[in-house]
Task: structure prediction
Amino acid sequence: MNKFKLIACILLVSFAYASDFKLSGDPGEIFALRFDKERFNDYMIIDRDGNKFVLVPLPFNKQGSFVEINGIKIFVNEKNFGESRINVDSSMVTLSKENQERTKKESEIINKALKKFSRIHKSDLNFKMPLNGIISSRYGKKRFINGLPRSPHLALDIAAPSGTEIFAPESGTVILVGNFFYSGNYLIIDHGFGLLSSYSHLSKVNVNLDEYVDQGKKIGEVGATGRVTGPHLHWSIYLNKTRINPESLIVENYLDSIL
Ligand SMILES: [Zn+2]
Result:
């Protein structure tokens, strides 16, 4: 093989390799997959200038591998989000039998709510910051509690004094309100088409179950209920049950940036 053929061969192989990863994105982001005639049940579909896109969340735990939708593979890049170390009372880590039963029941209630796929509202993904505070822990941090590795932090923590007002970052319907062992006073808002958000550790909840809230309406106040080290809001956003990065959605025109 002469030199030129060899170079052509290398180029061809590297092109083929690169094109395999043409559909890729970072963990915690949403991939907008353009499509024509396929059907995607229970996904958010965006119509923009006659083009159709299906919104696919890229899970944190799929880094270095693919998510597959209707046989189409999307590569999830590997990303270093850093780590966070916290210490909490040992009774909040090593649970009594009673609390084990409680947390098991509660996670079933929460998981059931998060499966909701309603078609009443459709968000344009223009979320606002829910309160004025300081970001104290970002999405994706590897977490160590009392020195032991735990599941990663797939939410945004915003620290603020107890009583700081929290506002709905996007319109939706309140589909769960309650007091939970880990999350304290907690609520979930359904923004429609598999997009939901949750709010943990509140001192006060200002909305009722099944209540519709407009973007900007007060939903509660910051607190330190549940498993916490101090007052803050633990804010999660879910798309199709996958936790995505809340900081991405508060960037103006996020949807435009991914289409
Ligand atoms: Zn948190």
Q: What stands out?
A: Residues 137, 153, 155, 157, 234 surround zinc ion (CB under 6 Å). Residues 136 and 157 are 5 Å apart (CA to CA).
